[in-house]
Give the backbone structure.
Amino acid sequence: MAGDDFTREQLEALLDRLSTLRVDGPSRGGPYVGIVHNDLTRELLAAGKEIVPLLISRLADSSFDEAVYIVFILRELHATEAQAAVRKLQSEIETRSVGRDLTLKMQVEFFLRDVGTW
Amino acid sequence: MRTFAEKLKAIQKNTSARSTISRLGHFGRRQEVNQNLYLQHTIGSQAEQRQVGGSRGASSAAETGRLDHDFSRISIHSAESAGMQPNSVATTPRHIRTQQKNQMPAKVACTPALYLRRTCACGGGCPKYKGEHNSRERRYKANQAIGRRDNKIAGRARGPRSDGLDDAPYRGPDDSTTVEQRGPGTGTGMGCVFGPMRVVASGALEGGYTVNDYLMGGLSWGAVSSPGSAGRDGRGFKVQLSAAFSNDTSLGVSQTMTHGGSNQSFLDGTAAYLGRAAGSVTNGATFNEPVLDAGNPYAHTGWELQYGPKSGTDPASLLSFADVPRAGAGDKGHIDFRTCFFSRGGPCQQNNTCRTWRWAVDFTGSNNVNTVT
């Protein structure tokens, strides 16, 4: 398993860096951007499913930008076990998106759209 | 030469004959040919006289083929069976004008057999109209399929409107502006859109708006320079779509996007926007805008239409919307956006008004192209 190559400290360090990312990406007219991979998200993906519980635990207290990337990575990892946490996030979307756009809302919708197919 | 109205009168005179013929319709093809002969005699064309020989015995395919037209294939039964509304026989000057409008083009394209429908003398629908209809139907079905697919993916249930208003029929995001001949409407909650739709790609946005005014609930388009003006914003572009409306502020909006001539970077940017895998978006494929509800253009999504001006001297009938597409480094190609505004709760003169606008970019190498037309 890919995650065996990472210690918990290393994973935590990667996740700390995740909190510094700012949402950026292409838009096709609507008030949100598409999320694409960068070096950090690829590193986190390489950690494999082992990182899923850590991502879920951070989701509740994450900033708008961090939450966007967490949900994006959870979807890329096909983390069905994160469904409850993402649904809870969905119920908080309006308050967590004030002053921002619909990127977090759309990432949540994409996750919930796809989770049934994993 | 008889006028068209005179021919219509001749048809009306034969109403009783047509009823009789309808009762005889089950006697078979030969009887049907004789029925044709009756009406053909009334009209008195030479072609009809040639059919007489065919009906007297030689009904073989070869004989039929010898004739210019196979009249046995022409329906002469009720108006309904001829693909018409039951009240299509002209009875008032308005009806006559309507029928003239509908039927004269068919007369020009080919010789109508009975002036009862857009039919060629050869027995089928005129190719001109058949193509027009099929094309429209294909577009409608294709867009419906897109909507159904995306709705299924999103898992959204499309129930009846919760506010009880009677929605105007949704005709698909790719419909052209549809105009229906109706009287002034008084429907509850009615809002009517009036085209044509305008694309504001430079200068101040109409109505004194900024692009953030089209976002509700404290949402923002983020770091956009000069949000009150249309035009370039780095690799983004601020666009305003506008038209006119009347009555209630409850109209709908939909939007689709179709890539053309785009490189993989640009296509994959759209895939990310749609929450799809890289490589899944191709040139020519049309996608619904994910934020707007393809199955219900009246849904409130946080990205909303604006009614009337915010400031300035624009008319109170102003209806507007805004888009801010944004490309990435290395992107090249164009996207044809099709934006539609929908009337609601009619009757309205127009069910919708639509406009296709093109966003073209080239950020490859040192190129720096970013236009909306």
